[in-house]
Amino acid sequence: xxxxxxxxxxxxxxxxxxxxxxxxxxxxxxxxxxxxxxxxxxxxxxxxxxxxxxxxxxxxxxxxxxxxxxxxxxxxxxxxxxxxxxxxxxxxxxxxxxxxxxxxxx
Length: 106
Known about the structure:
Elements: E1 21-23, E2 25-27, E3 33-38, E4 41-56, E5 63-72, E6 77-83, E7 89-91
Antiparallel strand pairs: 1-7, 2-3, 3-4, 4-5, 5-6, 6-7
């Protein structure tokens, strides 16, 4: 039998991975990003390479998000999303599965 040490599991030693970070985004009325504030610098969105929507858990805490893989001026590609419940924007760290041909970075 293992004794309970009395401390909460993972207290301060671990941090969540892949957490979204709040992001300032300028978008069209249709919700397409055209520019964003990335690491303190205003960057234009040169291309939207992919877009997809996720709607989940409506019976608990609703999740409704529109994701975009965007290319910023300078060539950086990042995945961003708009939370359609709160209307807030986020950068979402994402690494494509090996062999998919996509490279996403933040």
